[in-house]
């Protein structure tokens, strides 16, 4: 018999399923209660986005779970941002130095189902169609409701909430003892549209590297149509389509979702602002009218746990805006840290240590995700931003142990997010200073710039690249 405590997880989404697998592999008895029916039999229902960008942090967690190869087999590589300007031109801005630094577009439904299979194979017991309703933390008991609303009570002395941004466990914990919760709404919403596979579009439309295989536009990129205060993006799916997301202010003057309430008004807006994209969206009217406007916010909590009785992980603890493509990646990183801490430690100690390690990093990626919205929708087309990017790339090429773009630290290393934020700030000040008297990056004296860099900042810590 194992002396490890039995663990109750709430939520069998991306983070819950991966955490459950890792804990079961370490010998814990794990029960997962998931509000929705089993997506493997009932079909995957909606969710927050159709596909997601998987980066090094998420991949590393999947490697440690023995699942990375399986996931990558169903992923589309994205080398960088393909930026589409209003004049109809496009150009690739690489994310990393070469093809060893890329991100991957994966299907949320496919990934969730793969993780459920893996967790079940590791011995996790799933209870689908069972949503958490309430918890008596003193008695170590919880109430769940099935799909007909019929409630029952169960023992749950140690309970972990991976039940997403609208976490029911968080609400129960907060009612028991306030968690210091604050939600900052972004004020921008999103709507998903679709570019179908090339075969469903007139051949004359296929350009920009598109038409290759079954894809209408370049498959190995994350496409952005930056328009200053708003933008569209598109991520490829394995079967040749792209999921397009329009990000726009929710309220306020044109253009906002409030001023574009239906496909008719939105089509005129797309004709003006996304003229090259609209013809690639044959289902525009139907999708626009049928798909909801998603809300976006950042969640901050002072406390993530209630002694050793309850803990929040993933979006339940630290939901962030999606613009760095890091919410799931951060949640996956959580699972590795937590599984390691629970192994051999009392839950109260493990939970406290988990919060101590992860909270500053969650706060840092929350901030960088907000900043990345401005970068994606606006700065990518700004000459000053491009000059800093180019000078940064020259420095990184010449002294890679001393300079690395913040985006690369976040996306391609395991350096703590808090470190990436702080180092990125210092590097940015330096780049501004170096470019102050130069018209462009090419005219900066590289040897002098390296000397200033080395005099100002210590070398980077050892990089644990994947
Ligand atoms: C538009 C958009 C795009 C995104 N793109 C990316 C990206 O490219 N890369 C990235 O890394 N991240 C991305 N994210 C973030 C990512 O979606 C989340 O960080 C991730 O889904 C968090 O996983 P989770 O398991 O914590 O929560 P969820 O995925 O929300 O899963 C929660 C689970 O708990 C279940 N549940 C809810 N309530 C209960 C209850 N009461 N009882 C039992 N079960 C319950 C739900 O049914 C669900 O299965 C994006 C988010 C959005 C909104
Ligand atoms: N939206 C955000 O970005 C954030 C939300 N929050 C908090 O979350 C709570 C609710 O947020 P809100 O955005 O209004 O609502 P949700 O995002 O929770 O729900 C919106 C819709 O999406 C569905 N949905 C949500 N997650 C999933 C999933 N994993 N799989 C399938 N469908 C899903 C919901 O279905 P169903 O109702 O069946 O769950 C609902 O129909 C609030 O308390 C808010 O403060 C906090 C931070 C960020
Ligand atoms: N997955 C996303 C979903 C929504 C918005 C952005 C993303 C990104 O991944 C952006 C990418 N990291 C970028 O910086 O170009």
Automatic annotation (TrEMBL):
It comes from Frateuria flava. Catalyzes the hydroxylation of L-kynurenine (L-Kyn) to form 3-hydroxy-L-kynurenine (L-3OHKyn). Required for synthesis of quinolinic acid. One of its GO terms (molecular function) is monooxygenase activity. Belongs to the aromatic-ring hydroxylase family. KMO subfamily. Keywords: FAD, Flavoprotein, Monooxygenase, NADP, Oxidoreductase, Pyridine nucleotide biosynthesis. Pathway: Cofactor biosynthesis; NAD(+) biosynthesis; quinolinate from L-kynurenine: step 1/3. Its cofactor is FAD. SUPFAM superfamilies: FAD/NAD(P)-binding domain. It is an enzyme of class 1 (oxidoreductase). Pfam families: FAD_binding_3. It catalyses: L-kynurenine + NADPH + O2 + H(+) = 3-hydroxy-L-kynurenine + NADP(+) + H2O. This is Kynurenine 3-monooxygenase. Its EC number is 1.14.13.9. Residues 9-180, 295-364 form the FAD-binding domain. It comes from the Bacteria.
